[in-house]
Amino acid sequence: MAELGRRAGVLLVLVLGLLLPSVTTAAVSAEARCKIMKLKAVLKEAKDKAHCYERSLKANLPSSQICFARAEERRQRYFQRVEETGGCATVKDGASLGVRVDGFLQDVTTALQGRASPRSTSGPKATSAPEATPTPVAGPSPTPTSMAVPPPPVATAPTAKKAADAD
Predict the structure, then answer these.
(1) 86 in the Ramachandran plot: left (φ > 0), alpha (ψ -120 to 50) or beta?
(2) Helix (H, G, I), strand (E, B) or coil at 90
(3) Which residues pair with 90 in a beta bridge?
(4) How far apart are CA 17 and CA 118, in angstroms?
(5) How far is Cα 106 from Cα 46, in angstroms, rounded to an integer?
(6) Which of 20, 94, 120, 151 could connect to 79 by a Cys-Cys bridge, CB 3.0–4.6 Å?
(7) DSSP labels for 101-131?
(8) Left, alpha or beta for 46 (phi > 0: left; psi -120 to 50: alpha)?
(9) In b/e form, how buried is each residue of 82-121, taking b as 16+ CB within 10 angstroms?
(10) CB-based contact 102:150 (threshold 8 Å)
(11) CA torsion 44→46→48→54, rounded to 10°?
């Protein structure tokens, strides 16, 4: 009798395991799926570029621009495939997100070296042609603010008036 209950429990777990992923996947909109896939691509690029830094540190050599270029190319190809499937609220935003990855990695590596990092000179030099600015696609709703990525802080040079006031 206990064997029958155990088998029923295992069967129930298997059936739920097969049904639940399809139920949760169906509830995700095309726009949300696009954002998820782009987020995964950006995270993969960050991981790949961090690996480039790691390899250069282990070999005690400068970072390889070829390694960075390969990571960027992978992200660009993936973004293109995702955007071709449709459902994205914005298109051609890969370059701007790539710049944010570069800035983040530059800030982290600089912090590990014990120096302050100005955002204006962040990231490895881009080797690929820049993409166009993000283009909104006509759709049901704009990007929710909870999913929007805040812009990086912009460092401004002190003006002559501020310098005169300080004297």
Answers:
(1) left
(2) strand
(3) 136
(4) 49
(5) 11
(6) 94
(7) HHHHHHHHHHHHHT----GGG-SPPP-SPPP
(8) alpha
(9) bbeeebbbbbbbbbbbbebbbbbbbbebeeeeeeeeeeee
(10) no
(11) -150
Which residue is listed with tokens 């390899």?
55
In sequence order, what are the residues at sequence separation of 6 or more whose Cβ sits closer than 8 angstroms to the Cβ of residue 164? none
Provide the residue ranges of all domains of the chain, joining segments of one domain with +: 28-139
**pLDDT single digits (tens) 142-160:** 444 444 444 444 444 454 4
State the Cα angle at 39 between 33 and 41, rounded to 5°: 105
**How many other β-carbons are positioned within 10 Å of the β-carbon of residue 147?**
12
SS3 content of the chain, % helix, strand, coil (to 5): 65, 0, 35
Cα dihedral 40, 41, 42, 43, rounded to 10, equals 50
pLDDT-derived band at 113, boundaries 50, 70, 90: confident
The Cα–Cα gap between 77 and 141 comes to: 26
Of residues 103 and 124, more confidently modeled? 103
- CB neighbour class for 7 (10 Å; exposed up to 12, middle 13-18, buried from 19): exposed
pTM of this prediction exceeds 0.70 = no
